[in-house]
C-alpha cells in the first residue's frame, strides 16, 4: 500500500511528492504509517504528533484532501472509501497531484498556513486569532468560598464548544479562510461564543470583540468546519447565534 506524501523544505522552489510503500496491517493509522516511513524508509520526513489519542490536536493534516487527525484516521477504511467526507470546494485543497484513492493515501499539510517543512505548518496565524478573542475565563466573583455551581442545562450548552482541541482542521477546511486570510476562523469564533454563554462570566461585551468584518460577519455558513471537526464542535451554530444576538441589539 502506498502513501503519497507532500515534501517541502526551505529553499525549494516547488514542493514535491514522494511515494512510500508501507506495510498494510489491521488498525494501522495514517500516523502509524508516517512513523513506519520515518523509522524504516526516510528519517527526514517531518510531521507533528504527541498524544496519539485525539487529544492534543497536533497531528491534523490533509488526508485525501480532507483535514483530519492522522492519529485517528485508519488506512483500511480510507482505502475502502468508508471515511469519505464531502466538502464544499475551497482554495487550498484543489487538485495537486493525481492519486488513486483505492490503492494509495495522499498526505499533505493543512491549507491556509505556511509550510515549514513537509507536513508541518506554521500555526502562528491560527493562534494569533485564537488569542485575539481573549480565551480567558473572567469570573464575576474572584474568590468564591466553594466551587461555582452551574445549571446542568448551561453546562450542556457549553459542552458543545469546550471539547475543541485546537487542531485547526476547521481552519484548514474553511473556504472563507482561503479567500480572506484575515478571517478569525471557526475555532476562534466558537471559543469566543463559549465564553460569552458561560453564566459565570463577568464580561457581557465579549461578542463585540468579533463584531468586525473579519469576525462573525465573514462566515458564509458553508459548514466544512463541522464536517471535519474531530470533536463535532459546531462553529456555524455559534456564529449564527452571535449574529442574531448582535443584530437584536442594533
Ligand atoms: S473546532 Fe474542531 S476542527 Fe476546529 S480546532 Fe476545534 S477541534 Fe479542531
Ligand atoms: S497525536 Fe494528538 S491529536 Fe493526534
From TrEMBL:
Family matches, as InterPro entries: 2Fe-2S_ferredoxin-like_sf, 2Fe-2S_ferredoxin-type, 2Fe2S_fd_BS, 4Fe4S_Fe-S-bd, 4Fe4S_Fe_S_CS, Beta-grasp_dom_sf, Helical_ferredxn, SDH/FRD_Iron-Sulfur
Cofactor: [4Fe-4S] cluster; [2Fe-2S] cluster; [3Fe-4S] cluster
Biological or metabolic pathway of the protein: Carbohydrate metabolism; tricarboxylic acid cycle
Signal peptide stretch: none
Pfam family, one: Fer2_3
GO biological processes: respiratory electron transport chain; tricarboxylic acid cycle
2Fe-2S ferredoxin-type domain residues: 1-91
EC code: 1.3.5.1
Top-rank lineage group of the source organism: Archaea
PANTHER family: SUCCINATE DEHYDROGENASE [UBIQUINONE] IRON-SULFUR SUBUNIT, MITOCHONDRIAL, SUCCINATE DEHYDROGENASE IRON-SULFUR PROTEIN
UniProt similarity note: Belongs to the succinate dehydrogenase/fumarate reductase iron-sulfur protein family.
Name recorded for this polypeptide: succinate dehydrogenase
Organism: Methanobacterium alkalithermotolerans
Amino acid at each position: 500500500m502506498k502513501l503519497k506524501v507532500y515534501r517541502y523544505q526551505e529553499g525549494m522552489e516547488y514542493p514535491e511528492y514522494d511515494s512510500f510503500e508501507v506495510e498494510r496491517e489491521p488498525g494501522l493509522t495514517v500516523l502509524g504509517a508516517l512513523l513506519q516511513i520515518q523509522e524504516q524508509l526516510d528519517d527526514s520526513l517531518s510531521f507533528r504528533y504527541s498524544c496519539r489519542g485525539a487529544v492534543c490536536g497536533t497531528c491534523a493534516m490533509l488526508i485525501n484532501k480532507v483535514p483530519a487527525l492522522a492519529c485517528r484516521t485508519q488506512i483500511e477504511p480510507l482505502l475502502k472509501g468508508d471515511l469519505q467526507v464531502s466538502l464544499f470546494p475551497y482554495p487550498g485543497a484543489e487538485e495537486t497531484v493525481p492519486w488513486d484513492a483505492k490503492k494509495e493515501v495522499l498526505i499533505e499539510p493543512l491549507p491556509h498556513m505556511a509550510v515549514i517543512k513537509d507536513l508541518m505548518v506554521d500555526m502562528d496565524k491560527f493562534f494569533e486569532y485564537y488569542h485575539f478573542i481573549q480565551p480567558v475565563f473572567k469570573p464575576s466573583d474572584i474568590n468564591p468560598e466553594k466551587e461555582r455551581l452551574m445549571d446542568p442545562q448551561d453546562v450542556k450548552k457549553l459542552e458543545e464548544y469546550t471539547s475543541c482541541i485546537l487542531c485547526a482542521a476547521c481552519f484548514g477546511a474553511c473556504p472563507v479562510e482561503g479567500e480572506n486570510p484575515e478571517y478569525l476562523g471557526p475555532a476562534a469564533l466558537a471559543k469566543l461564543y463559549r465564553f460569552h454563554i458561560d453564566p459565570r462570566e463577568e464580561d457581557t461585551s465579549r461578542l463585540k470583540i468579533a463584531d468586525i468584518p473579519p469576525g462573525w460577519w465573514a462566515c458564509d455558513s458553508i459548514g466544512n468546519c463541522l464536517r471535519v471537526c474531530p470533536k463535532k464542535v459546531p462553529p456555524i451554530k455559534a456564529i449564527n447565534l452571535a449574529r442574531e444576538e448582535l443584530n437584536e441589539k442594533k
